[in-house]
Amino acid sequence: MTHDAGEKHPATIDDKLARALALAIAKMPRANLQQIASSAGISRATLYRISPTREGLVDMLTARANDHLQQALADAALDRPPAREALGRLTENVMKAREFYLFWSAMLWNSMLEVGDSSTPSLYGQTLEQFFLNGQQTGIFRIDMPAKWLATSYDYLLYAAIDSAQRGEIATVGLASMVERTLFGGISPIA
Q: What is Dmax (Cα atoms) for the chain?
């Protein structure tokens, strides 16, 4: 019998616990349920009530992460100019649920490693790529860099900033601004 955690459990736990579980798995992608529970600060029994299998837990958190990330994208309104502010909105929105972003990234990379896929998808695939292409066509972004590469660069920079903040290497205050300044400093048209 297949356990469909993505539909059965998302409403059964609050966002705070879901974020703690997502972060636990992001830190230790191969962790068992006992290790996940311990890292999230709950008992194994409590975790078992949420999901009796690791796969079910991962499915539930993947659904929650996808919902949060898609909402961050929708709320950013990337088609509403100016482009710099639109990308800033996306960054801020992702930062609000950064544990889900770290989880989503960890699961994506594990999946890619397991199936031997060497592609490097960006956070929101074609939507983000189209955002950068539109910016190139209007002269906002450099045209000597492919839009797909710009989308991937943004995704990696965002991941590096969130991961560094999670590790305590940099402060979370001003993190979105730092990502924005770093990215735009490197992709603005050369004068």
A: 62
